[in-house]
Every structure is written in C-alpha cells, then in structure tokens.
Design brief:
It catalyses: L-arginyl-[protein] + ATP = N(omega)-phospho-L-arginyl-[protein] + ADP + H(+). By secondary structure, the chain is α+β, with helices and mostly antiparallel strands. 49% of the residues lie in helices and 15% in strands. The chain is built from 14 helices and ten strands. Helix 4 crosses helix 13 and helix 11 packs antiparallel against helix 12.
Length: 358
C-alpha cells in the first residue's frame, strides 16, 4: 500500500460495492471515540505527548493483526501535502478536524479503505468503519473487533459509571457515533424533508450534510446519526437508528412513487436535462454538478437511464470535489479553472461509460 493508492483512486470499496438498500442508503458508518488511560486528552496535551500516542499505536500495528482487520497503513498528517489531506477528507477517510489540529496527528487506513483510525483528533483514537448500504450491525461488528484488538495491549480511559471518557461530554458513555449517508431526492422534491428533519431531531438523532457537522446536503445527500451516547448500549443505538432509517427509506420510496404517478414527464425531463448538462457542459460549479448527479442517479434508480452504473456516479461525487480536481491537475487551481476541469472530467467519464456499455 502507498499514499498514492489512497489519494489517486476516487472509489473506495464501500462506494463501489453493492449493499442492502443501496438505491437510497449509500453507506453505513460506525465511529468509536477512545482515549488512553494515564494520558492527557488531545484538547490540552503537548506535542511530545501526541508523538508518544502515535508511537504506541505504531507498536500495536507491528504486532499480529487478525485476518478480519487486515493490514493497516500509517499516514502521519504533517507529512502530507495540503491537497493530499483534502483528498482524504473528500473520500471520508479522515475528518476536517484531523487536518486542522495543531498537535501531531496521524491515521491508519486499511487497503480497502473500509477502516480508518484517526489518531490525535479530538480524542486519542477515532475508530471508523464504513460499509456500503444499510449495514450498521455488520459495521459495528468490525469496529468492535478493532476496539478489542487495540485494547489487548493499551488501556483505555474508562469509568464504571460513565463508560468511556472522551474530550467532549457528548461522546461520554459508549463513545459511539453511528451514521448513514442517504440519497433522498424524492423527499426533497416533494418538499417533505423540512418536516422530517425536526421529527428526526426529536428522536435523539441529527441530520447533517455530506461531510458531517457544518456541511451542506449537496446533491440531496444527508447524514443521519445518533446524538445520545450515554445511557444506551451500542446495540440499542444501532437498532434505534436502523429503525428510523428504515422508516425514511419507506417514505423516500413512497415519495418517488408519487412523483412517477403525478409528474412522470416533468421528472423524466428533469433527469434527462441534468444528464444533458453533465454530458455537454464546459463549465460547472460544485453545487450544480452535485444536483445533476443526484438527478441522474434518481433516473438510474427509476429505470429512465440504463447505460450508466451507480458506481460511476459515486466516483464523480468524489472526483468533482476541489481537492481531487487540483490533485489531478498537479497543483492549485482558481475557482473558474476548477469549474472548467470539473465539466471536462464529467464529460470524459460519462463518454467512457457509454462507450464501454455499447
């Protein structure tokens, strides 16, 4: 494995694989926040202490790793170029916060990119597992394997009453954040999403954009995750979120059916107009590209478009982000230059797909 592998390939395995409910649920993610016993938390530790944490993790990965986990590659963040960091964020392999922290930080990545362990972010460890479709229980199983493997040689900061101790009080307890990334164009087009979000919030869940807290829901993609980590078991958190997600899936399918019944021509026209823009535009901004990609993906799900795979659209969602565009260009680009390259790249990928399927 090498850094180039992680930053030059747009598609991680969780983006290209087929999973349950994949037409609506793009991915399932489990993240565990953990801190080491007898170490200062990252919010106030020194750079020397941060380095000691990384050294501890290095020693652990040099030991035998179970087959379920596989080989893990260590990347030290301060050794990466700015564009490389941005690409890893755009692929959801690391958080923006990991890049921004002043202390020494790192991450462990598995070859298939389903496993990412961030070191010295808000907590000493952020263990993240990603899988395609609605697979929260399966993803939790892998995360727990990782958690147990690390704890075999490193003691965690743990309290019998409060559970796992974390830098932020909102993570105390299980330290678990379970989330799903959902494509919800039907609910957006039927203007139901504004009513659904407050109802979700009342259930102790939160709705965010494509890159989590503080990000926009580009391309009708939303992240739904738990807010409560204390007072519930990991299993209960995952089961509660799964139940809500299944209800949202049913509502999204109902909204799509209603659009087909009542606005079939208008919907088909919207899909093919967006397809036309993606196939022919010479300049396209991030937001417009995301909207058109969402429309085309909906068209594929409804059977309007048959010669493009969903994996190509997943790839375009990542390739058209600013970091990837500049990485392929070999250096920084101005905003209008990115818009030109974005349009050219989309045309190239769509034309290649059409040629391959004909």
């Amino acid at each position: 494995m090498s850094l180039e592998k992680f930053v030059e390939n747009a598609l991680s395995s969780w983006m290209s694989a087929e999973g349950p409910e994949i037409d609506i649920v793009l991915s399932s993610r489990i993240r565990l926040a953990r801190n080491f016993k007898d170490f200062t938390f990252p919010t106030s530790f020194s750079e020397e202490e941060a380095k000691n944490i990384i050294d501890l993790v290095k020693k652990r990965i040099e030991q035998e790793v179970t087959p379920e986990i596989g080989k893990l590659e260590l990347l030290e963040i301060d050794q990466l170029q700015q564009l490389e960091k941005r690409v890893l964020v755009e692929k959801h392999l690391i958080s923006p916060n990991l890049v921004e922290v002043s202390a020494k930080s790192a991450c462990l990545l598995s070859e298939n990119e389903e496993i990412s362990i961030m070191i010295n972010e808000e907590d000493h460890l952020r263990i993240q597992c990603l899988m395609s479709g609605l697979q929260l229980k399966e993803t939790l199983k892998i995360a727990n394997l990782l958690d147990d493997w690390i704890e075999e040689s490193i003691d965690y900061a743990y309290d019998e009453e409060r559970g796992y101790l974390t830098s932020c009080p909102t993570n105390v307890g299980t330290g678990l954040r379970a989330s799903v990334m959902m494509h919800l164009p039907g609910l957006v087009l039927t203007q139901q999403m504004n009513h659904i979000i407050p109802a979700i919030n009342q259930l102790g869940l939160v709705v965010r954009g494509i890159y989590g807290e503080g990000s926009q829901a580009l391309g009708n993609i939303f992240q739904i995750s738990n807010q409560i980590t204390l007072g519930k078991s990991e299993r209960d958190i995952v089961e509660d979120l799964t139940s809500v997600v299944q209800q949202i899936i049913a509502q999204e399918r109902s909204a799509r059916d209603a659009l087909v019944r009542t606005s079939h021509i208008q919907l088909e026209d919207r899909v093919f107009r967006s397809y036309g823009i993606l196939s022919n535009a010479r300049i396209i901004e991030t937001k417009e590209a995301a909207t058109c990609i969402s429309d085309v993906r909906l068209g594929i799900d409804l059977g309007y478009i048959k010669n493009i795979s969903k994996s190509i659209l997943n790839e375009l969602m990542i390739l058209t982000q600013p970091g990837f565009l500049q990485k392929y260009a070999g250096g920084p680009l101005k905003s209008h230059e990115r818009d030109i390259r974005r349009a050219a790249l989309i045309r190239e990928r769509l034309n290649f797909t059409e040629s391959s399927s004909s």
